[in-house]
Guanylate cyclase
Amino acid sequence: MKGIVFSEFLELVEDKFGFEMADDIIDEADLPSGGAYTTVGTYDHHELLTLVTLLSQKTGISVEALVQVFGEHLLGRFYEAYPVFFEGVNTCFEFLDTIENRVHVEVKKLYPEAELPTFSATFPQPNVMHLTYTSKRPFSALAYGLIKGSATHYGENIAVTMIDQSAENLTKVVFELVKQD
Ligand code: HEM
């Protein structure tokens, strides 16, 4: 997983829980990388899960909740780092529909070693989007946070329900998004 994801995560931890907390979880995690992430480097995604699990133990907040909040934060950072992906894209559904065939395609060109999930979208009604997440990694909670962050970015009120389709290892999930008016 790309270093940008790790460095953004640790910055958020510092912001919300303080520098010592970030330092403590890195120390305790005893990571192969030593926790010194560079934006362009690539690291084992298990390191992120180890850091989140330790943070969850220390704060009493569930891993899922922490990863979701991180996803919401990350969307804002993606907007700052890659504004081009938002240009000419006017609604949340439209934006989410570009991730598979545009955004992650460009990410893969920039970082050939990136490990990305797959999304497929259907629109059963104009105000309803079904977005199916499939990955080898259990980061559907991150997708949930990124979806919520996208709705916030577009100032839209969207109810999101997550339906696990993978016997609970969270590698295949259908998100039902219902735009409220
Ligand atoms: C401008 C917007 C976006 C950019 C630039 C972006 C870029 C990236 C990058 C760099 C990674 C890390 C790949 C790796 O570490 O190997 C990633 C992973 C991921 N992205 Fe995106 N992304 C964007 C939007 C989204 C949105 C809106 C969603 C959700 C619908 C999403 C879902 C995910 C998930 C869940 C992962 C984790 C890997 C996995 O689950 O297998 N991304 N993305």
